[in-house]
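Key result, reporting period 2: structure in, sequence out.
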């Protein structure tokens, strides 16, 4: 049923009519065949190459938005029971992989992945551990580090676990820089959504997806945000809701699209969905929206 809805959504978007019509400047398409299932996160490199991470088996997946053949690069060396969920390029080459694990956990691994003679291998000695205990949290089964992005030598991580704060639900955000963590809370702005992706803007700000199907918000944290040093209570960030346009939210909700990745692509934001969920399957979707927050 959901697959049929997704395909009918594509047809309606192509016609530009009906309830699924998209706002001006937006796009919504199915990724061509041949890609791995269970894709998460999204990176668009300066040369235009686009990458995501596949959970099972663990691999980096080069994406094709124009129909050229995709490529999958297996990742070796992840601990047993650990699955990749988030992806960011490392400043000195290679990659960072955010992970989740089985059962309740006090911490999750951010794996440092290096290219060794054409093979992608995890360097556990260079892999930091994000402690959920620093937020007073314990990560539930298969919910962990959902998004990564890089600002120079600083790595930003967001988590799917959530907590109740003085003014409502909130989600953890952390920065790894100079061998130390700093932490903050992102106030959530929908009824059920959780953070699923983060994109670092060159201006120093952040874009985040908060989502649970129809509960969808694009959040913006402006440049100059401050996080709390290790050992101090996490800071509370100011996050503005920047959409998406109601027509975009309606269109994606109709197709059962649950967004898992976000990246800057020129002057637009490129979105990527998961196609392998517990109750919903279908084509992997990608979309484009304006990179703006009025």
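The corresponding designed sequence is given below.
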């Amino acid at each position: 049923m959901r697959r049929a809805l997704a395909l009918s959504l594509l047809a309606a978007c192509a016609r530009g009519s009906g309830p699924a019509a998209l706002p001006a400047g937006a796009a919504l398409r199915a990724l061509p065949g041949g890609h791995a299932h269970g894709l998460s996160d999204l990176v668009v490199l300066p040369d235009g190459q686009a990458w995501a991470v596949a959970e099972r088996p663990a691999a980096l997946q080069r994406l094709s938005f124009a129909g050229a053949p995709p490529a999958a690069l297996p990742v070796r060396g992840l601990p047993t029971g650990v699955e990749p969920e988030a992806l960011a390029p490392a400043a000195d080459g290679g990659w960072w992989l955010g992970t989740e694990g089985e059962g309740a956990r006090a911490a999750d691994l951010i794996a440092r992945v290096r290219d060794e003679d054409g093979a992608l291998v995890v360097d556990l000695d260079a892999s930091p551990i994000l402690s959920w205990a620093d937020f007073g949290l314990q990560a539930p089964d298969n919910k962990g580090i959902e998004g990564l992005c890089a600002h120079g030598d600083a790595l930003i991580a967001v988590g799917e676990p959530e907590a109740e704060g003085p003014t409502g639900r909130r989600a953890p955000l952390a920065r790894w820089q100079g061998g130390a963590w700093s932490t903050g809370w992102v106030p959530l702005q929908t009824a059920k959504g959780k953070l699923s992706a983060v994109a670092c803007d060159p201006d120093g700000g952040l874009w985040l997806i908060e989502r649970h199907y129809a509960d969808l918000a694009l959040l913006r944290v402006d440049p100059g945000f401050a996080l709390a040093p290790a050992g101090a209570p996490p800071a509370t960030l100011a996050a503005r809701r920047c959409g998406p346009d109601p027509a975009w939210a309606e269109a994606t909700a109709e197709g059962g699209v649950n967004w898992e990745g976000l990246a800057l692509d020129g002057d637009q934001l490129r979105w990527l969905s998961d196609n392998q969920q517990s109750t919903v399957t279908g084509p992997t979707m990608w979309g484009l929206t304006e990179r703006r927050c009025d």
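Helices lie at 2-15, 246-254. Residues 1-19 have pLDDT under 50 and may be disordered. This case is discussed further under Risks and Mitigation.
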